[in-house]
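We were asked to recover a plausible sequence for a given structure. The inputs and outputs are reproduced exactly as logged, with field labels preserved.

PROBLEM: sequence recovery
POSITIONS: 215
GIVEN STRUCTURE:
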């Protein structure tokens, strides 16, 4: 099986550049590719995400609201990659985690943008800084997302709030007290999508590590 980090290699960076050409006027694709690919091969997967985010920041508008408008156009024009590539979704990862890094001071815009983009790649990592820094605002969105028409958005309501998500920042307030997440899980536990129900099961497994009696 291909190494996971190869999901963010030359081909994926090329798809990122092609998308930006289509949504941003005067985008310098050649310079973006040069900077994004520089040193990429020596990096591991999460390091590649961080590196590409830093390069994106130099090419996207400094005004996050303007950047969000560009990013929300991506699903309509996004090249989803070869259907036989199990890692094809990774190309969208830097765009989505960019929101968690650079949208932290604009929680409503950031959360709305994640709702639009999570169909491309799960926003379960990107939402965590927003949950920790703006819990009341995030809870409002999560309640709405648990009833969303898209299975990707409904899954985010469960997966994004998992206390001990692998590879993700631990949500220590939910490790201590999972109560805020219980209404979401009750809404989603009988979801028609197996994709969503598996997330609920994994979320319950996280809670069971600290509160087995509650589960």
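RECOVERED SEQUENCE:
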């Amino acid at each position: 099986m291909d190494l996971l980090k190869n999901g963010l290699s030359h081909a994926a960076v090329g798809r990122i550049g092609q998308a930006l050409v289509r949504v941003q006027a005067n985008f310098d694709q050649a310079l973006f590719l040069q900077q994004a690919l520089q040193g990429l091969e020596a990096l591991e997967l999460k390091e590649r995400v961080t590196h590409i985010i830093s390069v994106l920041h130099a090419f996207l508008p400094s005004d996050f609201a303007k950047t969000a408008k560009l990013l929300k156009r991506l699903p309509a024009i996004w090249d989803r990659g070869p259907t036989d590539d199990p890692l094809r979704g990774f190309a969208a990862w830097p765009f989505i985690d960019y929101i968690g890094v650079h949208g932290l001071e604009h929680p409503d815009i950031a959360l709305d943008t994640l709702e639009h983009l999570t169909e491309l790649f799960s926003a379960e990592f990107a939402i965590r800084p927003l949950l920790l820094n703006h819990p009341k605002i995030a809870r409002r969105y999560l309640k709405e997302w648990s009833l969303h028409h898209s299975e990707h958005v409904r899954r985010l309501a469960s997966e994004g709030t998992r206390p001990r998500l692998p590879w993700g920042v631990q949500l220590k307030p939910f490790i201590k007290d999972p109560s805020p997440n219980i209404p979401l899980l009750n809404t989603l536990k009988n979801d028609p999508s197996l994709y969503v129900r598996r997330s609920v099961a994994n979320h319950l497994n996280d809670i069971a590590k600290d509160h087995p009696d509650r589960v």
